[in-house]
Amino acid sequence: MNDSQSKRSIRDIVSKKHTKSHKGNIPGEKRQRRSKQRSSIALWVAIGFVILFVFFVLSLVFSGSKILAYPQEATVAVDGVYEARRTAAEGIVPYEIMTVTKEGSKEVDPTGESFVEERANGVIQIYNDFDGEDQRLIANTRFESPDGNIYRIREPVTVPGKTGNTPGTITAQVWAEDPGEEFNVGSGTRFTIPGLEGDQRYEAFWAEADTAVDGGFRGVTQTVSPEDKEQAIREIQESLRTQVLEDTHAQTPQNFTLFEDALVLSFEPLTNESAENDKVRVRQKAVVQAVIFNEQQLAAFFANRILENYNGEEVRIENIDELQFTLEDSDAFAESIQTGFPFSLVGNAHFIWQFNRADLASDLMGASKSDINQILANYPSIERAEVILRPFWRRSFPEEVREIEIEVRTDGE
Length: 413
Known about the structure:
413 residues, alpha+beta
């Protein structure tokens, strides 16, 4: 064997070995590729499940139902003179009186001492639960507290008759019959009317302290100069005026309206007190009697007079605060507030029809989305509505009323 043959034989052998070795790795590479493909598929399947799970969770989190209800609306001009009275009657605007008090003081230097006698005073609410007839009480009518103390009104009053089962009421100022601290009583104190004792009206007429009846005093107290006292009173009243008017607006009950001009503000002196550093505390009490109108009654009164095709539905005046209220006789208002007074109201009243949200939510429980028009037919105050159900595949309202949200919208929103 020559050298060339030998070299070729070696190359051939090496070449064959390499060829065999290369051919032997092909099945392994295929297995690796198939494994990678399976891993990739498993990964995408897992990602798909995660996406579906997140979508499901988000659907639960943001699930719910909502009705956007658009009630009927109307804007009509109001311009006229009307009569308001504390007793409801045809063609009359009814109202109530709210009483708010606030005390203030200022410390000044004393100039001496004196013996002082002062009678307690305050505002009471007198009730007539006897019949529908008005009852006149003369000046100096007596009112007796549970401890036997006597208080009197200084002016005659007429207590309105009751309406249905609601007693007629009127407020009045009372003064203790005698001076002294023992006549000071808190708000809510109940009084009888001794002059009616033995009469069948005795149990049906009574009074309650609308404010604290206080200021009663008998004894020696420090005095101040007339100039200092007058200056102190001016400063106290100026401060009290702002505070008590703010309190009056803050304490106006929900669903009642208070017009700025429809109130009477008065000031009453309270007994001076000794203060620290040998000072005298001059005291005053501010009393506000404010006319408040029930918004539903007020809206119904005007709706009956100026709205076309109005059939007694519940409405409210959305912009009641924007209407201009004016007393026809402001000079006589302090006296007429107890019985009645004329007033004018001017402006464009925006009426919005009302409906019972709780009843609507109850009617929607478990109902199909396709039934919405049939359900809304029972609520003529609703002009149109939009239904929002989540998730998007939901076709009926929840079975729980708390899961049904009702939002009132107006065309201006």
